[in-house]
Amino acid sequence: KEIQNTQKQIISLEAKLEAKKSERLGFFKSAKMENIEISIIHGSLDDIDFQTQSSHENGSVNGTQSSSQGRLSVDEIVVDYSSLSSNILRCRDKDEIKKTLDMLESSLKKMRDNVARIQAPNIDFMERLKDAQGRYTSTNELFENLKKRDRVCKQEFEKIKELRRNKFQSLFDSVSERIDGIYKDLAQSPSAQAFLNMENPEEPFLEGVVYNCVAPGKRFQQMCNLSGGEKTLAALALLFAIQSNHPAPFLILDEIDAALDGSNISKVKNFIQKFTNETQVIVISLKPEFFSYAHSLIGITPESSGILTSCVMVYD
């Protein structure tokens, strides 16, 4: 009797096992039909012969034959459950499993409802897309053309910048070489010194040029600390240095003797007399000791009647 009871229990368990296998096979079949991806450690859904497995469940073919033909039975498929949450993996009894399934189905329903509420695609989308693509293409072409023009402009700018720098450097070098000798001639002293320096030799147009002079018999001082007469001689030296590099047909000097004493007036007069061999010099002066050495004089004086008019007198 005990043996019979045991056999009945075995038969009952085998029936339940076969039912579970059939249920498992159904899950795999549904997953394959609906293209649901299942993480599997051993085997794949393609390795299962669902038709043979179904026949086996009905008792027509055994599982070993399926395996011998290169297919896997449901028992041989090993599913990877590691991606499931710990709460799901801890489910053991039917109530917990049912509760978890209900929760998952509820979440799935919400997702489906959200998908259903999504607005239908815009029918004019393709036309708008083509229009946007056309505008993008035209804008991109315009951008490329502007980039080319920008490169050309930059190249032209660099050429002009280099030409400007070369011309400035050429003039600066020439004036810098001549100014010391001209200042010595003006001051009539070999101890006099004049020199030019660029504050930024690499980019001279970003900063300025420093001009300093050492007056005869004095120590070096900043230009701002020189006397009025010394500043006048320094300015004239710079003027004549530039003039010697790019000669002008004539010069007009307006009261350059205003801050000069008699000695310096004589020095400037002597230098200008040598300079007039190359350039005509017109000097405006109120000091007889200066204008008395001119080749020609033009005097301007008010009328003796007191009327605000002037008369011009020419003296040869």
Describe the secondary-structure layout.
Elements: H1 2-33, E1 40-42, H2 50-57, H3 63-68, E2 78-79, H4 86-89, H5 94-117, H6 125-187, E3 193-198, E4 209-214, H7 228-245, E5 250-254, H8 262-275, E6 280-284, H9 288-291, E7 297-302, E8 310-315
Parallel strand pairs: 5-6
Antiparallel strand pairs: 1-2, 3-4, 7-8
Helix pairs in contact: 1-2, 6-7
Keywords:
316 residues, alpha+beta, Rossmann fold, two-stranded antiparallel ribbon, 9 helices, RecF/RecN/SMC N-terminal domain-containing protein, mitosis, cell cycle, cell division, nucleus
Structure, explained:
The chain is 55% helix and 12% strand. It has helices at residues 2-33, 50-57, 63-68, 86-89, 94-117, 125-187, 228-245, 262-275, 288-291; strands at residues 40-42, 78-79, 193-198, 209-214, 250-254, 280-284, 297-302, 310-315. Helix 1 (2-33) packs antiparallel against helix 2 (50-57) and helix 6 packs across helix 7. By secondary structure, it is of the alpha+beta class. The protein folds into 3 domains: 1-46 and 77-83, no CATH class; 136-246, P-loop containing nucleotide triphosphate hydrolases (Rossmann fold, 3-Layer(aba) Sandwich); 248-315, 3-Layer(aba) Sandwich (Rossmann fold). Strand 7 and strand 8 form a beta hairpin. Mean pLDDT is 82; it is low at 60-68. Strands 1-2 form a two-stranded antiparallel sheet.
